[in-house]
Fold:
Amino acid sequence: MASGLNRTEEKKTYTVGEIAEMLGISDKVAYTLVKSGQFKYVRVGRAIRVSKSSFDSWLEPN
Structure:
């Protein structure tokens, strides 16, 4: 079996870079949003992963 996500499976987290790209902002501004507590996130090693549900909830009213 192949490892990784099947193309039909949805991601449960976003990287800060993905958030920056979706919002049309710089990575630095996206990191500032994350660190200010706008989204729930976890660290995986040195990487930050933002909860998809947290980001989507924040995005809807804006």
